[in-house]
Design goal:
The structure holds two protein chains of two kinds. Chain A is mainly beta. Chain A has one helix at 16-23, and strands at 27-32, 38-39, 54-59, 62-71, 85-92, 97-100, 102-103, 115-122, 128-134. Chain A has one domain (13-134). Chain B has a domain at 7-120 and 222-237: Thiolase/Chalcone synthase (Peroxisomal Thiolase, Chain A, domain 1, 3-Layer(aba) Sandwich). In chain B, strand 2, helix 2 and strand 3 form a beta-alpha-beta unit. Classes of the chains: A mainly beta, B alpha/beta.
Chain lengths: 138, 390
Amino acid sequence: MPEFSKPIPAITPEMREFFDGARAGRLMVQKCDGCGKLRFPADDLCSKCNSTASRWVPVSGRGEIFSFNIMHQVYHPAFAGQVPYAVVVVELEEGCKFVSNLLGVKPHDIKCGMQVEVTFEKLSDEVSMPKFRLRAAK
Amino acid sequence: MSLRAKCAIAGLGQTRMGKNFDHPGPIGFAAEAVNLALDDAGLQRADLDGLLVNPGITWLNNPMASSSLQHAMGLGDLRLTATMNLGGGTAAAMIMHAAQAIDAGMAEVVACVFADAPLRAPSPNKGGDGGGSAAFYGFAQGLDAHYGLFGVNAHYAFVAQRHMYRYGTSNDHLGAVAVSERKWANLNPAAQFHDTPMSMADYHASRWVVEPFHLYDCCLVSNGGLAVIVTSAERAKNLKRPPVYILGMGQGHPGHNPLDTLVSGAPIAKETAFKMAGIKLTDVNFCELYDCYTFTVLVTLEDYGFCKKGEGGPFVASGAIGPGGSLPVNTGGGQLSSFYMWGMTPVGEAIVQIRGDGGRRQAPKHEVGLVSGNGGILATHSTLVLGSQP
């Protein structure tokens, strides 16, 4: 049986600072220079003010589960041994949404509103991927 | 000037639908559907002077699909053509474009067609994909592919899950839509599931595709084509079949973030279409609503105002939308139990109903029908109000 690994995203020029941040343990999103709106993934312009100027800024990495699904179909061989697995939408404290995986929670135990925080999974020397885990109650 | 009843649908053409693997491709299906629609109207190819095309996913990469179809069919001297794509909102949008052009004197007889052929025969050597459509609808790249977020199903599942959290919608509610549409399909000899009943237990027992969606929450991706002929109301009166009058038309594209929207473009599209038609919600006799998923029907019913926002679940669970219910919805079995032709499925069934051709599935009152189309993740929306009288 050939071994398949999950697809590793290419470090494109517009996403370089995101991956630089992730490698250093920081979750980065784009911030519009025109109006300050945060966005992810990278985009050419701000949907609020249409400014094309932006910079990458670190965010807290804290948020809550906004929604999720549980995937049962295998679309890529690397996921054949993973199904069923969950994909989550995290609403970050700063307001923007981030699609990711939630570690340490069985798919059927995931609930909207769970408090989560970012953690990083190292895939290679260049690429670390933001994932999320439950955050202890304050 | 209002376009109310200025134009009508004069012809309907529908090819065989479903897992038919011996076919000439999507352009062949499109040509067959257009020719069937012309026959239905009592018109010839030479009568066509407009051709609007919504290419399905297997020929979306053809940037001039309407020209390709024109050449394939040998259509000469067209005065109007376009390749259009608003996803599942396209079918009704093509009809709007046709009606506007006809009213403006830019064309007289316009064919609007959708066709696709994404299903392939299972391969005995490789095990194949069971003839499924995952190869076409499972696209993902970049970060999404790493996180395992593949395909449209997975994105709609996010929205449905959030609706469940926010409003208490459940799989029993989604199942009520699936079971209701199956009951309608059981009355429609042309539906792929016409001879297979479905109980709520069957719904719950169907395999998960992506939670919260079971297999029976998802539409029946099909090979086939469906076309309609639009012409002026005056001309339609002298053709073979009774005119299906276009009473109202509207579009609504709210521009929400697909990750967090729970509202379709229906409220916007409805306002335009109902104003043109001069109708209220209570004037609607039956609905043909875009149903890529059970969930889409539930949200669309809310957004037209048949129930309050968030109460789509209890509304569909009441039995209102099934055979014998107060509001017949998706009377041919819809895209869930008959066939999926993007927005052309609801358009085609509305024509059948308005004409009174529904046989055992005929809605008791069928003077005014509401048709919806929906594309993307609740991104585009189109509304048609069709009627038997001008």
